[in-house]
């Protein structure tokens, strides 16, 4: 089966239970290629549930779904496109960039071929006027709502899918934009023989008649399934519910559902008979699929992805750069880091090499790395949470491997730290004279700062991947507090009840590494002006002229027991281990079946049921061209 083959989608006796609510109660039907099918129903009827069940985005309690006679498999992910109601896009990219990066990941062939496909898709979706405009968001000026919606459709159309499933493609659009969007979908279905199914909420008459077929759901069951132009006659002749001549048929059908007019004995009998016929019509396809021939489309792991791992990584890095390059330089960041460095430089200005300067040099070493622990640690906590929706969407369609995205995303998250540590450390290091013995100690200290950044970013990534966004900040602050306390800066570790905690504290090794360079690579320290009274080193400072404290002795008395190589080794091991744990936790998170979403869906279902009952009490006979209002599309996201 090629991506461009026209295939029918059939579902038989599909039942879905979410929590205590049975969202679908045995729905059967078929959608044909080359036709645009509307999936309608009031809030709580199960239309979004059916759409996501067909797309295998939620678990089906019972029943079966076939795609051209084949049961679902991972091989169908690139042939079945799903467009969410919420526009999942990158606001920082232009329309063409959004399509180009995705095309390079999902399409086979060279970049010239993918560019041609992108241009063709832009023209087909009527996006030429905005192709070089940033997509934008609520906080960033960009394309219009209709253009953003067509961009979402274009992203799925790039691979020429055989089936397109769209959840509320006209939601949030005015009537003109909604009409344009539906016209484009109708053209796609007929020109490319794609099976297109759209859930849609109370369309205008013009939009409604642009569809070929209608599936009307009510209370989790199919109230009608058939051609749009036959629906009015069906309701009048079979269900004894005549649509007034001046009514929009879509409004009338919705009023019949909301007003509980399909509960009459005649209507229920006809709907049950139609359901039985629909199930029988799909039964032979199910029987064929269960026969001796293979009933699943199979592809190897190498066939699952259009491009190899290295190419995926390169494209993903380029996409991250395109999104971040405009925000790398920020004057506020310049003022912040330069100001913090200057304040520290004033506090430790011109630290010398007397005995009284040993502890200030130790604390100055702590100041060198302090903010490069704090900022990367907090920034990394929500890297995955912020990108999770887009990541799940692209993983579902096999755009790339999770490992290539992980490397690209976590590497790009370090880009803001390419310049600011150099600025901060340079100012503080030389103003405070942390080690004025030459350029080598400065270069090594700067390298240790960058290693510290990688370590604590890795730590925060692991926490962010393993914990929910609501809990991660609490755990992170507790970890940060423990790490700062158990460094020996405030109280010697041997004087604490749990001195062993310092041995597993990654911050301790960062401090020990920087301090070993600041103190250990420096000059000897002169005793307190040659007097023995009050010295902390009576065995060295004997009162003789020229008594000095060696750097090694100063390090030991400052609590630095680890040499530079050991500290760097431990820091590197921690960084690698945390990054590995972050990837494993993220992979487990991506494999979850959405237990938390089930609780939310159950709550929404309960809310919809309450609202539907309230509407049924207050609804009256039609008196105007518009029936009683229904709830917003957002409430139907089961």
TrEMBL record:
It is a multi-pass membrane protein. It comes from Diacronema lutheri. It is found in: Membrane. PROSITE patterns: ABC_TRANSPORTER_1, ABC_TRANSPORTER_2. Its main location: membrane. Gene3D superfamilies: P-loop containing nucleotide triphosphate hydrolases. The keyword Transmembrane applies. The chain crosses the membrane at residues 334-354, 366-387, 440-463, 475-493, 564-582. Keywords: ATP-binding, Membrane, Nucleotide-binding, Transmembrane, Transmembrane helix, Transport. This is ABC transporter domain-containing protein. Pfam families: ABC2_membrane, ABC2_membrane_7, ABC_tran. It comes from the Eukaryota. One of its GO terms (cellular component) is plasma membrane. GO terms for molecular function: ABC-type transporter activity; ATP binding; ATP hydrolysis activity. Residues 9-244 form the ABC transporter domain. The keyword RNA-binding does not apply.
């Amino acid at each position: 089966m090629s991506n461009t083959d026209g295939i029918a989608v059939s579902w038989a006796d599909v039942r879905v239970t979410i929590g205590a609510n049975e969202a679908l109660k045995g729905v059967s039907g078929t959608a044909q290629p080359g036709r645009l099918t509307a999936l309608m129903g009031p809030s709580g009827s199960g239309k979004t549930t059916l759409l996501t069940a067909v797309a295998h985005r939620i678990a089906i309690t019972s029943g079966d779904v076939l795609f051209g006679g084949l049961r679902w498999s991972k091989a169908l992910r690139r042939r079945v496109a799903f467009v969410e109601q919420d526009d999942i896009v990158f606001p920082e990219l232009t329309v063409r960039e959004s399509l180009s990066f995705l095309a390079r990941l999902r399409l086979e062939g060279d970049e010239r071929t993918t560019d041609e496909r992108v241009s063709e898709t832009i023209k087909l979706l009527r996006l030429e006027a905005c192709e070089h405009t940033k997509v934008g968001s609520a906080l960033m000026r960009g394309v219009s709502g209709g253009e953003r919606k067509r961009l979402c459709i274009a992203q799925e159309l790039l691979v020429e899918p055989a089936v397109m499933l769209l959840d509320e493609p006209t939601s949030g659009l005015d009537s003109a934009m909604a009409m344009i969007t539906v016209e484009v979908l109708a053209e796609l279905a007929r020109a490319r023989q794609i099976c297109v199914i759209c859930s849609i909420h109370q369309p205008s008459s013009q939009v409604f008649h642009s569809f070929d077929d209608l599936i009307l759901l009510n209370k989790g069951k199919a109230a009608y399934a058939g051609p749009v132009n036959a629906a009015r006659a069906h309701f009048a002749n079979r269900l004894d519910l005549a649509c007034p001549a001046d009514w929009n048929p879509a409004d009338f059908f919705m009023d019949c559902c909301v007003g509980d007019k399909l509960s009459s004995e005649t209507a229920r009998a006809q709907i049950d008979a139609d359901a039985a016929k629909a199930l029988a019509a799909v039964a032979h396809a199910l029987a064929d699929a269960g026969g001796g021939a293979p009933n699943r489309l199979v592809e190897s792991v190498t066939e699952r992805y259009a491009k190899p791992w290295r190419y995926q990584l390169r494209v993903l890095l380029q996409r991250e750069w395109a999104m971040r390059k405009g925000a790398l330089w920020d004057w506020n960041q310049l003022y912040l880091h330069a100001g913090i460095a200057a304040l520290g430089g004033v506090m430790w200005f011109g630290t010398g090499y007397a005995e009284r300067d040993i502890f200030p040099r130790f604390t100055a070493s702590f100041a060198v790395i302090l903010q490069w622990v704090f900022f990367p640690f907090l920034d990394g906590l929500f890297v995955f949470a912020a990108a999770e929706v887009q990541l799940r969407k692209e993983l579902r369609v096999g755009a790339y491997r999770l490992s290539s995205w992980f490397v690209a995303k976590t590497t790009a998250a370090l880009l803001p730290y390419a310049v600011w540590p150099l600025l901060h450390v340079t100012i503080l290091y030389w103003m405070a004279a942390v080690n004025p013995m030459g350029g080598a100690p400065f270069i090594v200290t700067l390298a240790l700062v960058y290693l510290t950044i990688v370590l604590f970013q890795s730590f925060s990534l692991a926490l962010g991947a393993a914990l929910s966004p609501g809990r991660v900040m609490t755990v992170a602050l507790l970890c940060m507090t423990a790490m700062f306390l158990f460094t020996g800066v405030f109280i010697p570790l041997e004087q604490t009840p749990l001195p062993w905690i310092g041995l597993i504290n990654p911050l301790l090794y960062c401090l020990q590494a920087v301090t070993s360079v600041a103190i250990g690579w420096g000059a000897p320290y002169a005793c307190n002006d040659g007097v023995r009274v009050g010295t902390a080193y009576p065995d060295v400072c004997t009162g003789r002229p020229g008594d000095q404290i060696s750097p090694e002795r100063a390090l030991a008395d400052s609590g630095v027991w680890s040499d530079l190589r050991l500290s760097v080794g431990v820091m590197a091991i921690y960084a690698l281990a945390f990054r590995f744990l972050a990837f494993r936790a993220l992979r487990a998170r991506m494999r979850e079946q959405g237990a938390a979403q089930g609780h939310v869906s159950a709550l929404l279902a309960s809310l919809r049921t309450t609202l539907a009952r309230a509407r049924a009490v207050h609804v009256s006979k039609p008196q105007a061209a518009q029936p009683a209002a229904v709830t917003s599309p957002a409430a139907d996201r089961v």
